[in-house]
Specification:
The complex is a heterodimer of chains A (about 250) and B (about 525).
Chain A lengths: L2 E10 L2 E11 L4 E5 L6 H9 L5 E9 L2 E2 L5 H6 L2 E4 L6 E5 H15 L7 H15 L3 H4 L2 E2 L5 H15 L3 E5 L7 H14 L5 E5 L4 H5 L4 E6 L2 E6 L1 H10 L2 H5 L4
Parallel strand pairs in A: 3-10, 3-11, 6-9, 9-10
Antiparallel strand pairs in A: 1-2, 1-4, 4-5, 7-8, 11-12
Helix pairs in contact in A: 4-6, 6-7
Chain B lengths: L35 H26 L4 H16 L8 H4 L9 H6 L29 E6 L2 E2 L5 E2 L2 E5 L7 E4 L7 H16 L14 H4 L5 H13 L3 E6 L9 E7 L5 E11 L4 E10 L5 E11 L4 E9 L5 E10 L4 E10 L2 E10 L5 E10 L4 E10 L5 E10 L4 E10 L6 E11 L5 E5 L2 E3 L4 E10 L3 H8 L5 H17 L5 H15 L13 H4 L3
Parallel strand pairs in B: 1-7, 6-8, 7-9, 8-10, 9-11, 10-12, 11-13, 12-14, 13-15, 14-16, 15-17, 16-18, 17-19, 18-20, 18-21, 19-22
Antiparallel strand pairs in B: 1-2, 3-4, 5-6
Classes of the chains: A alpha/beta (about 250), B alpha/beta (about 525).
Chain lengths: ~250, ~525
C-alpha cells in the first residue's frame, strides 16, 4: 500500500476539521475526493504535504509503510509526494526555470544523485513544457507572477511532470479553468499517470472526471469519508447534489 | 571587554554563518564621555598633519593644487570646529532619527581619539592586485586613502604623463599643475568646496537646516564633507574628456588596513565632460579583522549629455565603520545610474546628494544593504531638482537579519522652477528575524506645481506561503529562504549595464547570503582568515 490514512483527526487553531479520515491509495490508482466546501478536503491535502499550521490530533498516515509524520515538508517532497496547489503562490524574481532546477537538484541530492547538467536540464524541461503547452516565454518568467488562472494550473502540472512524483495530490486543479485549459491540464495528468504512481484529485465537479477517469470516488463530508464508490458515484452526485446523501442519512 | 558568542547552528534564519563570532558588546564601551577639547585637539592635529603632507608633496613641483586645497581644508576645519558642542554629544542627539548611526556619535565615542591616523604609513605592497576571474577592468588602488601607483603619471596608462587634455586620465590632484586648462577644468570642484563652507555669522546656527534650504543643501551632509576636506591628504582625479569612453570599466579599490584601530579619509573627484561615458566601480574593502573607520567623499560632475554608471560596493569587516559621501552635479541631459551596495560592515553610513541642475538631467539611484548580526546601516539620500523636466528615481532595498538595524532617510527637493519634474522615492525592507529593525523616513518637499512625484516605504517579511510552496517541491527551508532573498536583491542588480559587472555583483550577493563572503578568493587579504574555514 502506497498511502494509508488511519482514523486521522486534525485541527487548526483549536477547530477540529478532520474527524477520523480513513483512506487507502495504492500505486496505479486514481482517486477522486469530492464533497461540499469547508468539509476538510484541502485540509487533508495540506496535512499530507506537511503544512505546519494544521495540528494532527490523532491517527496516523503511513506512506510506503513508514510514518509520514517523521518527515518534514521537503523530505516528503523528496520521497515523492507532490501537492498541486489550489492557489499557486507567486514568487517574484525567481524564474520557473531556476525554481525547477533548484527543486530537481534538491530531490536528486536526497536520492544521492549528482546535480543535473545544464544542457540536459534544458532538454528535459523543454520536453515537459510541451506536455502542457507551456511556452519558453512563460518558463522564463517569475513563478506564477502575473499568470492567468489557467497558466498557474498548467504550471502546477508542468512541475508535476518535472518532478515525477509517486503520489500526486491535485487540490482543485480544475477551479478557474476554461474548458480548453481543463482539457490540456487533464491531458497532462493522464499522460503522467502510470502503474508506478498514484494520483488523488480533489474536486467539486464531476466535469474534471470526464477527462481524468478515477478508479475510486470518495465523498468527504464533515471531516470524514462518508461514501466511496466508482466513477458512477460522481455522476450521481452531480445529478442529485450532496443533499441526496443527506437525505439518505449518510451525511 | 566582554566577548559574546553565538550558536549559529541553532539560528537557522541567520543568512550568514560567519566564522568570526566574537564581538565587543556595548558594555565595554559605554561609561566615559569624551572630552570635547580632546576631540577637537585630535582633529586639529590630524588636519595639521594632513596639511604638512600636502605641502611636502607640493615642494617637488611647486605649482600643484596643494596650496588651494590646504586653504580650503583650513577653512573647513574652522567651520567644523565651530560646530556647537551638542553636535558631538551622542547623548544629546540620541533621540533623533537614525542617530545611532551618525558621524557625531562615532566622533563622540571614547575610542575615537585613540585611533591611528596612518598618513605616513608605508604604502601597501605594489604586488597586491584585486584579480577577479572574468572581470576585465582598469584598476586603481587606494590604500588607507592614499593613491598607489607611479607619481606624476596617468594611472590608466603609466607610460604617459598626468595631464587633463584630450585623453582620459586618472591621477593625483597635487601632481597636476594648478595653471591653465587644469585650473579651468577643476575650478567648479574648488568653487563647490568653497560655497559649502559656512559664513562666519551663521556658524552658531549651523545646525539649523534653514540656513541651507535656499540652495537645497543639507547641513549634516555638508558638515561631514568638511571633516573629509580637512583630513583627506590626497584627491584622486578621474577625468573623462569630451565624448570619451573607456573600453572597459574603471575599478577603484579602496583598501583599509591597520594593525591598530585607525581613521582614514579619502577623496575622489570625477569629471565627465560633454558626452563622455564611464562605468565606475568603487570598492571599499578591508582585512576581515581590521578596525578601521573610513570616511570617503566622492564628488562627481556630469557635464552636458555625459553618462555615468557608478557602483559603490562596501564589503568590510564587522569591526569596520564606513562613512561615505557622494555628491553629484548634473548638467543638461546627463545620466547617472548609481548603485550603492552594502554587502558587509559593522556600521555603514551612506550620504548621497544629487543635484539636477539643468533640464533633462536624469538620475537612477539604487541601493541594497544586507545586514546581520549587530550591524547597522544608514542611508541618507538628498535629490535636488533645480531645473524643469528633470527625473530621479530612488529604490533602496534592505535585507536585515539577527539584531541588525537599518535606517533610510530620503529627501526630494523640487525647486519652484522645476516644473515637469518626475521624482520617485521608494524604500523596501525585509526583516528576517524578530529582532531586526528597519526605520524609514521618506520625505518630499515640492515647490513647483506641475510635477509627478511619489514616495513609499515597505517593511515586510519573507512570504511564508512562498516558502511552503518551495518546500513542497523539495527545497529545504534554508535554501528556499536564500533563493527568496536573492530574488529580492536581484531587482537592484538587474539594471547594471555591463554584463561582467552585473554577474560579479550577483555572485557576491549570492555568496553573502550563503555566508561565504569574507573576501574574494585568491585575495592576499583573505589568507589569514581562510585558515579558519
Amino acid at each position: 500500500m502506497l498511502l494509508e490514512i488511519k482514523d486521522l483527526h486534525a485541527s487548526i487553531n483549536g477547530k477540529q476539521i478532520l474527524k477520523g479520515v480513513d483512506l487507502k491509495v495504492d500505486k496505479g490508482e486514481i482517486h477522486a475526493i469530492m464533497g461540499p466546501n469547508g468539509n476538510g478536503k484541502s485540509t487533508l491535502a495540506s496535512v499530507i504535504a506537511g503544512k505546519e499550521m494544521f495540528h494532527v490530533d490523532s491517527g496516523e498516515i503511513l506512506y510506503k509503510g513508514k510514518n509520514l509524520f517523521d518527515l518534514n515538508v521537503e523530505e516528503r517532497a523528496c520521497e515523492g509526494i507532490f501537492l498541486g496547489f489550489q492557489y499557486p503562490v507567486e514568487i517574484p524574481g525567481v524564474s520557473i526555470a531556476s525554481f525547477m532546477r533548484a527543486a530537481l537538484n534538491e530531490q536528486r541530492k536526497y536520492k544521492g544523485l549528482d546535480p543535473i547538467d545544464t544542457f540536459e536540464f534544458m532538454k528535459y524541461m523543454e520536453e515537459k513544457q510541451a506536455l502542457v503547452g507551456m511556452t519558453d516565454r512563460l518558463a522564463n518568467r517569475s513563478v506564477n507572477e502575473g499568470f492567468s488562472g489557467g497558466e498557474k494550473k498548467k504550471n502546477e502540472i508542468f512541475q508535476m511532470a518535472m518532478l515525477q512524483p509517486t503520489l500526486a495530490i491535485l487540490d482543485e486543479t480544475d477551479s478557474g479553468l476554461d474548458i480548453d485549459a481543463l482539457r490540456i491540464v487533464a491531458g497532462g495528468v493522464n499522460k503522467l499517470a502510470s502503474k508506478d504512481n498514484a494520483i488523488v484529485v480533489i474536486t467539486h465537479y464531476q466535469r474534471l472526471l470526464d477527462y481524468i477517469v478515477p478508479d475510486f470516488v470518495h465523498v468527504l463530508a464533515d471531516g470524514k469519508i462518508v461514501k466511496t464508490g466508482d466513477k458512477e458515484l460522481a455522476k450521481e452526485l452531480e445529478a442529485k447534489g450532496y443533499d441526496w446523501l443527506k437525505d439518505k442519512g449518510e451525511l | 571587554m566582554i566577548l559574546e558568542t553565538k550558536d549559529f547552528g541553532i539560528r537557522s534564519q541567520n543568512f550568514a554563518h560567519r566564522a568570526c563570532s566574537g564581538r565587543k558588546t556595548d558594555a565595554g564601551l559605554l561609561p566615559i564621555r569624551i572630552e570635547m577639547q580632546t576631540l577637537k585637539e585630535t582633529i586639529r592635529s590630524w588636519a595639521q598633519e594632513t596639511a604638512r603632507h600636502r605641502k611636502s608633496k607640493q615642494d617637488g613641483t611647486g605649482q600643484g593644487f596643494g596650496e588651494t586645497m590646504n586653504e580650503i581644508a583650513a577653512q573647513a576645519l574652522d567651520c567644523f570646529l565651530q560646530l556647537p558642542d551638542p553636535m558631538f554629544d551622542p547623548d544629546a542627539r540620541s533621540g533623533m532619527f537614525g542617530e545611532k548611526v551618525s558621524l557625531w556619535k562615532e566622533l563622540g565615542s571614547p575610542d575615537f581619539t585613540q585611533r591611528d591616523f596612518p598618513l605616513t604609513q608605508a604604502p601597501f605592497p605594489e604586488s597586491f592586485r584585486c584579480d577577479i576571474k572574468g572581470l576585465d577592468v582598469y584598476q586603481i588602488l587606494l590604500y588607507n586613502g592614499r593613491v598607489c601607483g607611479p607619481e606624476g603619471k596617468n594611472l590608466l596608462d603609466p607610460a604617459s604623463e598626468a595631464v587633463l587634455s584630450e585623453h582620459p586620465c586618472v591621477c593625483r590632484l597635487d601632481e597636476l599643475a594648478a595653471t591653465g586648462t587644469h585650473k579651468e577644468k577643476l575650478q567648479p570642484f574648488l568653487d563647490e568646496a568653497r560655497q559649502a563652507l559656512c559664513r562666519k555669522e551663521t556658524t552658531t546656527h549651523v545646525k539649523d537646516t534653514a540656513d541651507f534650504a535656499q540652495g537645497g543643501r543639507d547641513t549634516a551632509m555638508e558638515q561631514s564633507k568638511w571633516l573629509n576636506r580637512c583630513l583627506s591628504a590626497e584627491t584622486l582625479v578621474i577625468y573623462m574628456p569630451k565624448e570619451a569612453r573607456l573600453d572597459k570599466p574603471l575599478q577603484i579599490v579602496s583598501l583599509c588596513h591597520g594593525e591598530k584601530p585607525s581613521f582614514v579619509a579619502s577623496q575622489i573627484w570625477v569629471l565627465m565632460e560633454e558626452g563622455a561615458s564611464l562605468s565606475l566601480v568603487e570598492c571599499t574593502d578591508s582585512h576581515p579583522k581590521a578596525e578601521v573607520m573610513a570616511h570617503s567623499l566622492t564628488e562627481i560632475r556630469l557635464e552636458k549629455e555625459a553618462s555615468l554608471e557608478y557602483i559603490q560596493l562596501q564589503n568590510v569587516g564587522d569591526s569596520c565603520k564606513v562613512f561615505h559621501d557622494l555628491s553629484v552635479q548634473q548638467a543638461r541631459s546627463s545620466r547617472l545610474a548609481s548603485y550603492n551596495l552594502t554587502l558587509n560592515g559593522g556600521l555603514t553610513r551612506n550620504n548621497l546628494e544629487v543635484n539636477l541642475n539643468q533640464e533633462d538631467a536624469r538620475a537612477e539611484l539604487l541601493g541594497l544593504y544586507l545586514q546581520d548580526h549587530e550591524q547597522m546601516a544608514k542611508t541618507q539620500v538628498k535629490v535636488n531638482h533645480k531645473a524643469p523636466k528633470t527625473y530621479s528615481r530612488e529604490l533602496f532595498k534592505g535585507v536585515i537579519d539577527d539584531s541588525a538595524s537599518a535606517y533610510f532617510k530620503g529627501h526630494v527637493f523640487v525647486s519652484p522652477v522645476a516644473d515637469q519634474t518626475e521624482a520617485y522615492q521608494s524604500n523596501r525592507n525585509l526583516l528576517i528575524s524578530p529582532k531586526a529593525q528597519a526605520h524609514a523616513k521618506p520625505y518630499l518637499e515640492i515647490y513647483a506645481d506641475d510635477v509627478q512625484c511619489n514616495h513609499g516605504v515597505t517593511v515586510g517579511q519573507l512570504d511564508e506561503d512562498a516558502l511552503f510552496y518551495m518546500r513542497c517541491r523539495g527545497i529545504p527551508a534554508d535554501t528556499a529562504r536564500r533563493l527568496l532573498m536573492r530574488a529580492y536583491a536581484d531587482e537592484i542588480l538587474k539594471p547594471i549595464s555591463v554584463d561582467s559587472l552585473r554577474e560579479w555583483m550577483t555572485f557576491l550577493v549570492k555568496k553573502r547570503f550563503s555566508g561565504q563572503l569574507q573576501a574574494c578568493e585568491q585575495c592576499v587579504l583573505a589568507c589569514p582568515e581562510k585558515k579558519t574555514f
